[in-house]
Design a protein that fits this description.
homodimer, alpha+beta, 24 helices, 21 strands
Chain lengths: 685, 685
């Protein structure tokens, strides 16, 4: 929340994305431009190898293979859920860390799925054919149906995950094929206190001193996966000015949105989400004071909320900067003038901006109801809704189902639904009460759904009865319901299932309205604008982030704080962590660090920054050098990187990574994890 | 939070305020225009009588005398703090209501002050003289010094309160002289459950069924005050279409702000405040679940937070409406063109808009630090800061003190500081921890003040130690410190005093920067714009609200919901409360109502709406008929009235009031308060 300094607007390139930035798809990497910038550029072999060594974690992170035996490196915060699920009051791996001394001690993560991108195919022509002549309000369904068909044809089993990705807001469609790994086991995690040293106050800040790393291992048929593609560990590490690449899965950017869409983000979307998240943050923060067990089982939740609050606040502040917004508006004006100046372009694409503005009027009208009726603050509620909807959706042809119930998504859905992670009644009751209170607040007490759900009761009463009465806390019950299909679900009288059922038709209708009136038309007109850009600026542009694999390039580099002109150096060192430590959360180093201090090489680089272009979803991405060796592990961006949602400012936007040298130093000297150090470094040159 | 429907923009009068709306100062009431609109208009005698019958509650509400014996009517929510302060775990007047069967049972409110406006004098010329030739960054101090001089000359004792009010954003200065009453005693309060029936969900909504009334009595020299000015109780009540007036103290509107200031509100001020309030809301809501006693002593706090959240959210939504914002921008453009078209006006005032825009750039830069360093979430912390600052401020000449320590403000300050209301350690610790966490979050853990305040400790640890260690929980200790002055305060080693002292110089410097760079210049350029408006549109305009007494006019009237075209009728009836009741908070009617149902005249009008122009601060205002009789009691506005901060939309903006007939019906038949009914009605015709 510290003030986001004014962007150096001159650095914003309003017209077309420069090759000096960008989250590039592997099949459209700007090799020539990168050679010019960095002196050399990856070969096709290099690209293929790094792509196949890269992984996506289905929940929303990135990772990479770092040994031929399926060892995977990611962030602690990307594995936090697994670590928490494997913890108990007595054995708190979040607090105390975890290390499997031998392979047999590696523990299965209940809900972690890894995806490895094995192929990209352009399916734009097929999608265009499917969209041809379809009315605006039917577009969403037509697109969904064709995507489901393509994905279904591609996915030949649970081992594959196929996804049609809409790039450039509908300007291009690619089929991404992944190999899917669901047997993922925890190998090593440091203590939360060092992984998230500095906590929320230091989040998105630099200098930083975090060891935000976790190792897991992919298993196949009960044995560690053998893989040909994995990243070799660096010997020398990096220094300031070295060229580096980040290979990972940026979640979402909005750099190609129109001004009307940006205004919607600034004035409706972000304020609504922030209102909800801030309130939930205070609610869970106070819940934590109920006791140590309550604190333990709600920490991951709070961590996620705080991270979202800080991220969305940064995004909002970027759009709230009048100069930044004016630069985006000027870029749109420029493009629009160019389109209007060419009669053919004008006829084909000139109406898109006004059409999108009309759609945003509808978004403003529908936003509250759509959001509130699809809200899922409680996990248990989410299970119930998944079961009820799956019962209705799965009997339908694949192409007519709601997106998350299409065949290609089922394995992830099932893994989440069948999670053996414990359900905490007290927390679930509190979260469900919060969800119902929020629904009543947003929809109003006279909304028919609210009246039906609450009747004469208070949200807290209803939540308590539902959590107490439902059998869905048991994963075996959930699995049996899933396996039993519609007949079994329909025949089951569970209070939470009944509750979800009582308004599912209403919720679906609200969602349907959004799909028809908003989602479909936005894809159509967004696609038109993409075509206009292709025609005017060529295809050498990167699309907005879509939580698919991208490669970005840059150098290890600090920055100068605008305003104060303070120089921020690109490296921190292990010694700094000891200097910053106060002994109190979130600035308390764990006992292992304090005990090992004398043994450590304290000038080992701990964290560093680079001017690579990343965003949320890139957490866990490897930073690799020109030789393809892994030199770091992305775990954050600086506060200015949050503005990267809407535009990349090369002067201040920085990736924040753990240095590979600190990882082996800590594994060896703090955690006695020699087995892991050997596995990582034995094959290096 | 239900969506605020798009304003009927045509109804906005962008150029000058129409005489069909407005919060008019009593010395500039548009009699002719009102005669034209309503058929008749108040005489000067009527105006004087209603003015002297009207009261301001120093904390932020309105009220009125309703008997010659000092009986005062206001809202329950305006007296909530007093009612809570007089409650204990055993004797919960908030929950159970309160009625003093005899005069001797009337209980003194610890911190309630009433102000009666006895004179208004124009001091603009004197202020202009004081400002003449003063540099922009010295203006704040020059204005403050002259105001303090004028107020000091006026206030001849604690019985008078004199305030120089800056109207039209610095375009005019008036001296308001009040008679001050601090011996205020609780006479009657209904149960919270009926006063705030519908709770947060129904807040700012209509239809409503709230009995949001409380009676207190002003005492003078230990006896009920004898007053010549009081409002007679209506006999017949009102019906749809009747002309009505609201006499009260609207707190603040922003209808004369420039576009740059409105953008600051929309993009910085409101999001920051809402982020804080939403988080605090969740925090206190979860605190309430700790137990019934915790719930009791935090309910007023939560109620205030929820009310602010809803109010500020409504304001934000108004500014986020692109058509509404465009109408305000068009009005500014029109005025600016008119100024630019006249060389003399242009030379005098043409630069004001750009100058204000430059000031808002600074506001954006300073906002976070200024807000965080002056934050006071905890009452105890507020006491400590008041004592530390008073010690430094009071020895200074009146005109050089911080505003809240000038002589005219001291009685209110002292009343708050010496409040005998109990301090709840647990709540104070939680709130202080919240405040410190928020400071660290906004200022950053490396801010020198944060480092000094926290040292190696966590906010929760620091808060717990301070609350445990301070002696300021005892009002006698606070009074002794106040009476002992600087010598005693400086010599006292209290942990909370030390804590405040440790960063007071920093906090004052940050505040000083705001005053010099922002507050002073805004008054100068705002004043220029006011002069331009006077010259172009005449002086028949109302100023923005300033928490001073205003009279607004209109008729009893429902409205049509834009979009749905649903007609909202202007009256609800007592029967409706029973229909809406569910038995569960916040829709539970109290047992007294349920028991009395058979005796009640159920078709008694309970609440009604009128198109009078009000805003927060008007709570507790009497609604009076053309004959000067009190017919209702303002307690809310509808959701569209929140947009009234920035502009009055006559088609949908409505005042919400309790009907006078329901008040006597309830007093007599539900609460057995015959003594009060007699006092209210005995003198009516």
């Amino acid at each position: 929340m510290r003030s986001l300094h004014a962007f150096a607007i001159l650095a914003l390139l309003p017209i077309a994305a420069s090759a000096d930035e960008g989250m590039w798809p592997y099949d459209n990497f700007p090799t020539d431009a990168v050679k010019k910038r960095l002196g050399s550029a990856p070969t096709q072999d290099w690209l293929d190898h790094v792509r196949l060594s890269s992984l996506r974690i289905a929940g929303g992170c990135s990772a990479s293979f770092v040994s031929p035996n399926g060892l995977v490196m990611t962030n602690h915060h990307c594995a936090h859920r697994c670590i928490e699920q494997l913890s108990t009051g007595k054995n708190d791996h979040v607090k105390n860390g975890f290390f499997a001394r031998a392979e047999k001690d590696e523990l299965a993560c209940p809900t972690m799925e890894m995806n490895q991108l094995i192929a990209i195919a352009d399916v734009t022509a097929r999608m265009e054919l499917a969209k041809k002549g379809v009315a605006d309000d039917k577009l969403h369904d037509a697109i969904r149906a064709e995507i489901a068909r393509i994905e279904k044809e591609c996915a030949t089993g649970d081992d594959f995950r196929c996804e049609v990705v809409s790039l450039y807001h509908g300007g291009r469609y690619d089929l991404y094929t992944y190999r899917r790994y669901q047997d993922v086991r925890l190998v090593f995690a440091p203590e939360f206190a060092t992984a998230f040293f500095g906590g929320d106050p230091d989040n998105f800040m630099f200098p930083r001193w975090d060891l935000d790393v976790t190792f897991v291992r992919v298993y196949k048929d009960g044995k560690p996966l053998k893989t040909d593609h994995w990243l070799r560990w660096t010997k020398a590490g990096v220094k300031a000015g070295d060229a580096v690449f980040v290979s990972g899965n940026p979640g979402k950017t909005s750099r190609l949105k129109t001004v009307a869409q940006l205004e919607y983000d600034r004035d409706v979307y972000l304020p609504t989400r922030l209102g909800y998240l801030n309130e939930l943050r205070g609610y869970v923060a106070m819940y934590q004071t109920r006791g140590p067990e309550e604190k333990r089982h709600s920490t991951d939740k709070l961590f996620g909320i705080e991270n979202s609050v800080k991220g969305l606040t940064g995004r909002h502040r970027t759009l709230a900067d009048p100069r930044f917004f004016a630069a985006l508006a000027a870029a749109e004006k420029d493009l629009r003038q160019k389109v209007d100046a060419d009669p053919a372009l004008k006829a084909a694409y000139g109406g898109a901006w006004d059409a999108i503005a009309k759609v945003t009027d509808k978004m403003r009208r529908y936003a509250d109801e759509t959001w509130a009726i699809e809200l899922e603050t409680s996990d248990l509620f989410g299970y119930a809704r998944t079961l009820v909807r799956a019962a209705d959706e799965l009997p339908k042809p694949n192409g007519e189902r709601l997106e998350e119930y299409t065949d290609s998504r089922l394995p992830e859905l099932k893994q989440k639904l069948f999670s053996p992670a414990p359900v905490h009644d007290e927390l679930e009751t509190a979260l469900l009460a919060f969800q119902l209170t929020k629904m009543r607040q947003v929809l109003g007490p006279d909304h028919p759904v609210v009246k039906r759900l609450l009747g004469p009761k208070s949200p807290a009463e209803v939540a308590a009865a539902l959590v107490k009465g439902t059998a869905l806390k048991d994963p075996k019950v959930r699995r049996a319901l899933w396996d039993g299909g519609k007949a079994k679900v329909d025949a089951t009288r569970d209070p939470l299932l009944d509750f979800v059922r009582s308004f599912d038709a209403d919720a679906r209708a609200v969602r349907k309205r959004w799909d028809s009136d908003i989602d479909g038309p936005l894809k159509k007109y967004g696609g038109q604008l993409a075509q206009a850009r292709f025609k005017l600026y060529g295809t050498g542009q990167y699309p907005d982030a879509t939580f698919t694999l991208r490669l970005s390039h840059g150098t290890v580099k600090g920055w100068t704080e605008p305003g104060s002109e303070r120089e921020v150096k690109p490296f921190t060192y292990m010694a700094g962590a000891f200097e910053r430590a106060t002994g109190r959360d979130p600035f308390a180093l764990p006992p292992t660090w304090l005990a090992a201090k004398g043994r450590l090489k304290l000038d080992t680089p701990l964290d560093f920054t680079a001017d690579t272009d990343i965003i949320g979803g890139n957490s866990g991405s490897p930073v690799v050098g020109t030789d393809g060796d892994v030199v770091g592990l992305v775990f954050d961006g600086n506060i200015q990187s949050l503005g990267g949602e809407y535009g990349f400012d090369a002067t201040v936007n920085r990736t924040v990574a753990v240095d590979a040298r600190a990882i082996v130093e800590a594994l060896g000297k703090i955690y006695g994890a020699g087995r892991l150090v050997d596995e990582l470094t034995s094959s290096r040159p």
